[in-house]
Amino acid sequence: MKVMVLGIDGYLGWPLALRMIARGHEVCGADNFYTRKAVEEVGSWSAIPIPTMEERVKAVKRVFGADFDFREGDLRDYNFISSFIEEERPDAIIDFAEQRSAPYSQIDLNHAVFTMENNVIGTMNLLYAMKESAPN
Q: Which of 105, 121, 131, 133 could crosslink 86 through cysteines, CB 3.0-4.6 Å?
C-alpha cells in the first residue's frame, strides 16, 4: 500500500512513516517545517535532538533499504497538494499537518490567524485536492 503522510517531520508523522516502511509499505510525505520554525521563534529547543529531513531520508535508506518521496510544501498552497496527490496516487493519506499548539495560537492575533489559516484552509485544500485528484 502507498501511504502519504502529511506533517511527516513531526512527532507523530515520522514514527508512523517509519512503522509503515518497516511493514513494507511505500511512503511519501510532505512537511513545511513550520514546527521547527515556531520552536526557534519562541526561543525554545527540542529536548531530544531532531535530525534534519535529509539525515532522516539517509537513515531510512541505510536501515530499511527504502526510498521515499519527500517534498517540502504547505497545504495552504492548493497547487502543491493537488499536484503531489496526483503524482503519487496514494492508497491512503494521513494528515498530521496542523499547527497543534494552543498556547502558540494565542500569542497574539497574527499567531491565531496563522493557526486558523493553516489548520482550516490547509485541510480544506487537502479535501478538495483528494476529491479532484484521488476520488476513490
A: 133
pLDDT tens digits along 78-87: 999 999 999 9
The pTM (predicted TM-score) of the whole model is 0.89
Q: Are 92 and 1 in contact (CB under 8 A)?
A: yes
Apex CA 16: angle with CA 104 and CA 92, to 5°?
Answer: 100
φ, ψ for residue 79, nearest 5 deg: -60, -35
Reported as a single tens digit per residue, the pLDDT across 37-80 is 877 777 878 788 889 999 999 999 999 999 889 999 999 999 99
* CATH number listed for the domain at residues 2-133: 3.40.50.720
- The structural domains of the chain, with segments of one domain joined by +, span 2-133
Which element (helix H / strand E) includes 17? helix 13-22
Alpha-carbon distance 31 to 101, whole Å?
Answer: 17
